[in-house]
Amino acid sequence: MSPQPLISLRDINKIYGQPPSEFHALKDISVSAHAGEMLLLMGPSGSGKTTLLSIMGCILSPTSGQIAVAGEDMTAMNRHQMARVRLKHIGFIFQDYNLFPALTVLDNLLVTLRLQNITGRKAKDSALASLDAVGLSGKTGLYPDTLSGGQKQRLAIARSLVSEPDIILADEPTAALDSENGQNVMELMTALCRTQGKAVVIVTHDQRIKRFASRVALIEDGRIKEGVQ
Ligand code: ADP
Ligand code: MG
Question: Which residues contact 53 (CB under 8 A, 6 or more apart)?
């Protein structure tokens, strides 16, 4: 294991809203993930998992606490700087895939690359390599609607990989899938984690995913109850 985690959170608190109706969603959370590690965040609905993943992904700011991503201290960064770190280092996968329905499989990846000013031959080569990695090379011209649930999630994984992030964050990635497709998606993510040395953080309710994990953190009422530091 590398000495420095790819992503590290210390003493994170998140308070939504203003007094008197404020809500303390995360309480003194410290957690980290290293290259090649798969961390599961489990816990009941409303316990703060999505909030924590959003803070890890630099799409939500904590009320207090420190975050470092790939050695960069995010704490004092403005939105623009956070977006740069997010684009460079983080790939997201969501339960409902978040694909662009009007774009082909290939264009779903190219549009992501364009956000990073990667276009032309280089973009196409990267997109095709990502589709190959998830077993969708033959599907480039199809539209997402024509794919099965498992294929859609594999496309979402390809899209999260296309810009070569070192951290992958996934919110309930198997929730919409049957058990066979859920298992395939988890095997794919485990392989990426091991062979490409990515840090993978997965929010899940799915007990069957546990066996794929390097570590499991149980979250209840905004606190880590069990598992990791
Ligand atoms: P989980 O993903 O574990 O279901 P969330 O992180 O989505 O939990 O939510 C944790 C708690 O914070 C819940 O009680 C939820 O209602 C509350 N919450 C989430 N987002 C907001 C928001 N934008 N404003 C106010 N409360 C929120
Ligand atoms: Mg959630």
Answer: 41, 169, 171, 201, 203
